[in-house]
Here is the input.
Amino acid sequence: MSKQKPFPEYRRKLGPGWWLSNGHFTQYMIREWTSFFVAVFSLIYIYELYLFATGAKDSALALMRNPGIIAFNVLALLFTLYHAFTWFYLIGKVQPIRMGKTTSKPWQALLVNIVLLLIIFYAVIQILVLR
Here is the structure.
């Protein structure tokens, strides 16, 4: 007896740029790649904290003043904002809020989360400046 399946599985061959043909897939893949930059930024930040903790303040400051690190930090900030804003928008799609007969839209969740992010950002800056 052969163990042949009654219906063969059909698998479409996908090329390396398969995700570029659909806007939703493109946005998803870009969001996934941005997490790589967030992870690298976190590792660099942890290394800087390690330098400060071990007393190598000059080395840590030299690393922070490096033009390559500054450029990477700006790029990581832009990718982090893209990552956050697309997730904020998805929150509104995944978990809409019912208010009477109406349901919230994804852009409303995005707006609420951006406002909360700005409030938290302002509070952190105030805490750091007052110290």
User: Anything to note?
Assistant: Strands lie at 98-99, 102-103. The chain has a mean pLDDT of 88. The first helix runs from residue 23 to 53. Residues 37 and 75 are 8 Å apart (CA to CA).
